[in-house]
Structures are given as structure tokens and as C-alpha cells.
Amino acid sequence: MLRMLPYKSLTEPFDPNTYLKNWETVELKAREKGFTWATLYENYEDNQYMSDSLLLVPRQMAYEIENASRAVHDIFKKTYEQIGKNPSALHQLGLPIMLWDLFLKESKTKFSYFVRYDFIASSDGLKVIEANTDTPVGIVEAAIAQEVLCNEHNSQNPNSEIDKRIRDTWYQVIKDYYIRSTDTLYFTCADWHTEDKQTVQYLMSHYPQKAKYVPLEEIVVQKDGLKTPDGEPIEYLYRLYPLEYFLEERSGTGEAIGEQFLVHVMEDKVKIINPPSALLMQSKAILALITEKKSEWYTRIEQDAIDKYFLPTYTSPNSLNSYVKKPVLGREGGGIQIVANGAVLEEDVDHYQSQQTIYQLYYQMPDQTIDTWDGPYTGKLLIGSHVMDGQPSGLFFRVGGLITGNLSMFVPYTTI
Fold first, then answer.
1. For a designed S-S bond to 71, which of 28, 35, 278, 305 qualifies (C-beta 3.0 to 4.6 A apart)?
2. Which residues, 6+ apart, have CB-to-CB distance to 189 below 8 Å?
3. Are 136 and 143 in contact (CB under 8 A)?
4. Phi, psi of 310 (to 5 degrees)
5. Number of Cβ atoms within 10 Å of the Cβ of 312
6. SS3 of the chain: helix, strand, coil, percent, to 5
7. Which of 195, 186, 249, 183 is nearest to 217 (CA)?
8. What phi-psi label fits residue 165: left (phi over 0), alpha (psi between -120 and 50 degrees) or beta?
């Protein structure tokens, strides 16, 4: 368990009212800077999402997470290259067939520019359990909320370079996509989704050329391309919206406008960021493919990295007695089942039940105690590591249940 520094050291027994008053003070500071979802409304009540505790992470551990992030990203990059050489591997990834042409299309861009890898840390080392290569969030927490809370604790912010990494990534996108200074990069997401919208606007604020926000609901899909409500053509689009969701999008008259959108992507009438390859690498079946092809696709050094940082993962339980069953395109912990020694520890049966699944060796998450409205809470610690343009770019810690869902709490950190 990592050491924890509370926001306010209380000499009296824990008092919820005193704690809440202190918490609201720092929440307001974070809100004023652009982080507005320190609470989440779910199950008919407000839930605390931001803890004002500060995790004290040994500097050597932070270095190891950075090294692991580089190594894991290199393996994902190599895997993407190998799929390009062996397109039949697409059959194993559980991706919608209607999107295969997008994945097989030759591209000069990177497979993804904004990525978050999720790690479990224990005495046995770091293990990556999945990757969000398509639509990663947690960026605003790792940037804004992290800075505010470190300032409140008078502590160094290890994520202080994240703004620079975002700008550098945009410069690489401009280069790879050949975006001219006169071109506009449009930014979009579902306008009703506060977290996504403010993440999009935060990323847009660091874009060095012409940029405009257009709500996803207002994009006009026509036969000749995409347009804004004002009729401006959209050639370049950053979207914080899962690519597979477009297959279900319909107009008010029932037209398959999402499919038409994807046709425009296929025909290069609109160029999207993250690119379609980001969804390809989002499939959790990539982890099973890495296990299967370890000795065939990777060098000896890469095999050592796989042994060190990856968990054995398969398309069936095989001989595993303890495993985590995951839908290949599941999100926010949906559809996950955890089995230990043949017994189900926890599961979600309400989401993604029709998807192909993978089975990953169960690796127990460490306990971590943090301060909350209701007093000290002990949950499971998950480490998110942002990688932008291939470079480690800031950590994002969460503490929650056995299955890390959207109500798992964000916790800031500093290094010691």
C-alpha cells in the first residue's frame, strides 16, 4: 500500500461536515480551472469521484511505470505493424466486419496519438491489464485536478509536463496529417457528456493552429462529406467518441448517417484523430494475440518485455483456474467477470454480453486507503499511464472496487 497524505490533518475524530467543507474548498479551485466532475451523479445520488488525499509514490516506482509504459507501447506498435503484414489476424479481434476496410487501409499516421495504458502494481512487478488507444480520458484529471491538489498539499506535481506533451503531440499530428495553417481542425464529442466535452475543449486549447468545437449531434453528414451547421466543410476531425458507435447512428428519418460518416473516413473525405487504427488496437483481443504470437512476431528483447509486463491472455479459459473474462470492446468495466480458484468474485452481466471475450490471468490489485466523505475507504488501486505521441506523459491513479468502473475515485499523487 502506498503512503497517503490527507488534505487536512484533523486532530479531532473524523467529522463528515468538516471534511466536506474542506473538500468543497479544493473542489471549487479545480472547477474554476476546468475540472468540473469531482462528483458524479449515478444511482440517484451524487458520488464522490475526486479524493483530496495525496498518494506518496516512490520516485523509483514512478520511473518504473514510465519504463513499462514505453516498453508496452513499443509492443503495441510492433503488434500493429505485424497485423499489417498478416491481415488475417483481424479475424481474431472481434471487431465489426463493416470496419475492416478502415483497418486494412494503408496509413502513414501512427496507430494512435493519445493512449492510456492501465497497470496493476504489486510486489511481483507491474502488469498492463488493458489499453485505451481509441478514446482515452483521465487527461483533465492528470493535468488540472492533479496540479490543484498538489498545490494545496505544497507538493511537487510530477505531471507538470503534460501540457507540453499535448502541444508536442499536436505538432506531430499536424506534420503527419499535412494540416496547413489555413486548415481548421474540428473537435467533437457527444455534447451532453460533460467529461468528454471538457476533455475535448482542454485538448483543443493546446492545439497551435485553427480549431473549432462542433457538437457531434450537430455535424451534418451529406453524400459529399461532413459539414458544420453553418455549412463549413470538415476535413480534419478530432473525435472523442468510440468509432464503433457510429455504426448505430441514425438520422431522425432513419438514415444510416453513421455508416455514411465511416464511408467518408474510408474515402479520405474526412481524416480523423485518433485514426481508425486506434480502435483496432483497442480490442482486448490484441492481448491474446500478443500471447499467441510471442515467439513468432517478436524479438528476444521484446519477448522479455512481454514476459515482464504482460499477463497471459487467451480466447478461452484453457487451463486457467483464476482469470478475468473481458468483452473485447467493453468500456468502464462493463461485462467483466473475475474468477479466482474457480469461484466468481465479481461480475457485471448488464453490458456487452454479446461480444467476443478474452480470458486474462487474474492478477490481484493492491489495496489502497484514501480519504472520502464517509471516512477512510480501502479499495483497489489502478494506475493509468498516459502516452502521447509514443511518450509517457503523466499518471492517473484510481481507487475503486474489484472491477474498476466509472465511479472509481481519482486520487492525485506526488513522488518521494
1. 305
2. 196, 197, 199, 200, 215, 216, 239, 240, 241
3. no
4. -105, 150
5. 17
6. 35, 25, 40
7. 249
8. alpha
- Residues for the chain: how many in total? 416
Sign, CA torsion 292/76/411/403 = negative
User: Which residues are within 8 A (CB) of 312 and not within 5 positions of it... i.e. 6 or more apart?
Assistant: 291, 320, 360, 361
Collect all residues with Cβ–Cβ distance below 8 Å to 385 and sequence separation of at least 6.
Answer: 65, 66, 68, 69, 116, 117, 118, 119, 392, 394, 395, 396
Decide if 199 contacts 190 (C-beta within 8 A): no
Question: Residue 399 pairs with which residues in a beta bridge?
Answer: 381, 409
360 strand-pairing partners: 313, 324
In the chain, the N- to C-terminal Cα span, in Å, equals 14
**8 A C-beta contact, residue 225 and residue 231:** no
Distance, in Å, from the CA atom of 376 to the CA atom of 3, rounded to the nearest integer, reads 13
* pTM of the predicted structure, to 2 decimals: 0.96
d(CA 409, CA 55) in angstroms, rounded, equals 13
The answer to whether 46 and 39 have CB atoms below 8 angstroms apart is yes
Distance CA 326, CA 339 (A): 11
Residues 6+ apart with CB under 8 A from 267: none
So where are the chain's domains? 312-362
- From edge to edge, which strands make up the β-sheet containing 220-222? 220-222, 225-227, 233-234
For the chain, 416 residues long, give each residue's pLDDT as a single digit of tens.
787 676 655 445 678 888 899 899 999 999 999 999 999 988 888 999 999 999 999 999 999 999 999 999 999 999 999 999 999 999 999 999 999 999 988 788 999 999 999 999 987 899 999 999 999 999 999 999 999 999 999 999 999 999 999 999 999 999 999 999 999 999 999 999 999 999 999 999 999 999 999 999 999 999 999 999 999 999 999 999 999 999 998 877 778 889 999 999 999 999 999 999 999 999 999 999 999 999 999 999 999 999 999 999 999 998 899 999 999 999 888 999 999 999 999 999 888 999 999 999 999 999 999 989 888 999 999 999 999 999 999 999 999 999 998 889 999 999 99
Bridge partners for 237 per DSSP = 186, 272
Sequence-separated (6 or more) residues with CB below 8 Å from residue 94 = 283, 285, 328, 329, 355, 356
Alpha carbon distance 199, 187 (integer Å)? 10
